[in-house]
Amino acid sequence: QSALTQPPSASGSPGQSVTISCAGTSSDIGGYDFVSWYQQHPGKAPKLLIYEVSKRPSGVPDRFSGSKSGNTASLTVSGLQAEDEADYYCSSYAGSKYLVFGGGTKLTVL
Amino acid sequence: QITLKESGPTLVKPTQTLTLTCTFSGFSLSTDRVAVGWIRQTPGKALEWLALTCCDDDKRFNPSLKSRLNITQDTSKNVVVLTMTNMDPVDTATYYCAHFPIHGGHRFDYWGQGTLVTVSS
After folding, report:
1. pLDDT (tens digit, 9 = 90+) per residue, A44-86?
2. A43: alpha, beta or left, given left = phi > 0 and alpha = psi -120 to 50?
3. Which residues of A touch B111 (CB under 8 A)?
């Protein structure tokens, strides 16, 4: 069982927005602004999408945005495109446990 | 250009020790403020952080696996080695190594392609 809780699936139509949640505790998400999000297409390695809650690495479209409220982080994908269909994972610094991941959310573009 | 690549056995027997090598380029563990970490992904797709090694050979381990893990680095060869003892079928997973900037968000920003390790007799 993963340390961070994500919904197993999410979906949306092209052009719509979808938000994926990632629930943790005060020992991880709630305690630090070190939440990251990764995108993984089938057969590929994860790719960094968001770090430090809301920062985007160079090359990541601004359709991807991150936020945090209390012990829950969120990833929003705006203007859904077919290529956004993938698995998404959250991660957080967790103090003594150092790094924890969520169980992943499969995003389907309808 | 930062690249990482994992190598090692594809099949190990239960109770054996797994040794995986991460060969990287485009950065230096001895001069850059970066670390190399290992993450695995089970067939059910969950990601699990395993270990991290940094400058000055600083090491961090997942507390739940710490007793079975070791991580070493050879800065002259740009190699990081992960060993995991007493392998079990539940350790069957794809193992990734990844680049981890020390200053900046506790994130893995470059990943290797991964290597699938199956534990079976």
Report:
1. 999 999 999 999 999 999 999 999 999 999 999 999 999 999 9
2. left
3. 45-47
